[in-house]
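Lecture 7 notes: from sequence to structure.
We start with the chain below.
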Amino acid sequence: KAANFFAAIESLYCTAEETPYHNVIHAADVVQNINALLLDMRFNRFMDPMDTMGLLLAATIHDTGHDGRNNSFHINLQDDLALTYNDRSLLEHFHMAQ
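Predicted structure tokens for the same chain:
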């Protein structure tokens, strides 16, 4: 089940060819950095297992569907994303709605 879950999350990210930064490689990098903070820097001693799982999950999904453009781009274009989220933190709201 976990492999299916992570495969589904991976499919929500753009490829490196589609988006040079906010892609599945970036997601893996963020997860690895969080893992290093937890284990190598021993941040895990301040967290219970549920907090740790939540943090790793958030790192995994944090940029799903990101198209490589910023909030200002979408607002200036007045595209569907900007209209849907009323020009307020639209990419952040979009990611959470995924």
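Points to note: The longest helix spans residues 24-39. The chain has a mean pLDDT of 93.
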